[in-house]
Write a structure and sequence with these properties.
Elements: H1 3-7, E1 13-19, H2 34-52, E2 56-60, H3 73-86, E3 94-97, H4 102-112, E4 116-119, E5 124-127, E6 130-133, H5 136-145, E7 152-156, E8 162-164, H6 170-181, E9 185-188, H7 199-208, E10 213-216, H8 225-231, E11 234-237, H9 253-267
Parallel strand pairs: 1-2, 1-11, 2-3, 3-4, 4-7, 7-9, 9-10, 10-11
Antiparallel strand pairs: 5-6, 5-8
Amino acid sequence: MTWMKEVIGTEKAIIAMCHLLPLPGDPYFDKEKGMDYVVEMARKDLHALQDGGVDAVMFSNEFSLPYLTDVKTETVAAMARIIGELMSDIKIPFGVNVLWDAKKSLDLAAATGASFVREIFTGVYASDFGTWDTNVGETIRHQYRIGAENVKLLFNIVPEAAKYLADRDIESIAKSTVFNNRPDALCVSGLTAGAQTDAQLLKKVKEVVPDTVVLANTGVRLSNLEEQLSIADGAVTGTTFKYDGKFENHVDVKRVKEFMDKVKQFRS
């Protein structure tokens, strides 16, 4: 039995993304509508995801485009306010992701009581956001310093819009990440949010680290969920739950229900 059963309540769990609108300090923040509007839209999406039957939810500043790798304080403060205001509405386990800053994600988890964090914890990348470096030793020490040692760490080992600087295959990355860092899960992604995760890639990762939870991190949808979940231990899902399956839209509860009905069928 994996930790997912204990923390989320089921194996083959579906972690749904609650994408927050642009926040103060972000280029596309709507100053006229302000933070109250951001909170209300997050509430709307959260209810749609929960009513649709997802197993867990993860809050992320998905619309803070273009992303920073050293996130500003105002972003974390805004996210903490949103989650704080939604606390009485949250009925399922939740996690957080402050894109793309592992330490700030942990700070937010510690402040809100999140059960898990997804981030790029390891590696050096050439990316759309410049050269992207990490310091996992410092990040994990920070986790313990702030009392967040029980927060589960979901290591994204195929960052979207980025490529490992060293020429390493996915198997050796997965193996050494698990050996050196003891992640709670490895996330395997497509190129961007909503892009399908390559099933062969998933399979390679799961085969070399059979005892580690492996999640399909992008692009799981009705048409491929059986294939993806037959390999992966669960999925992180966002775009497919939105109206017309479009990244920029809000969550459509009908799409969520249809997807989760098929997942429940698959699990049984």
